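Hello Y.,

Per our agreement to keep a running log of every chain we model this quarter, I'm adding this entry. I've kept the format consistent with earlier entries: sequence first, then predicted structure.
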Amino acid sequence: MSIKSKFSKFWDMLQWRRVMDKHSDWFEKNEPAQDRFEENEDWLEELEERVVKLEENSHPCKELHEFEAYPKLIKRIEELEKNIGRESTDEASGK
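Predicted structure for the entry above:
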């Protein structure tokens, strides 16, 4: 790595540090922003705890056809289609 490249990286780091210090100074002087940040931090921690609990108690999702009642539901729909006539179901589905 050349000296010019090293100096360039060093200069970029100094600029980055200056910008970070400037933002830090603003944050230190702005109490409402600090309060809001702390509220958001607490809220995020609460959400994280809730997500962990949900993940512990959750199970993989099921497709509709995997439910025990699915065959009965399909049979019932088919019987209803026979009873009311196929034409009305075609109209409802946009066919």
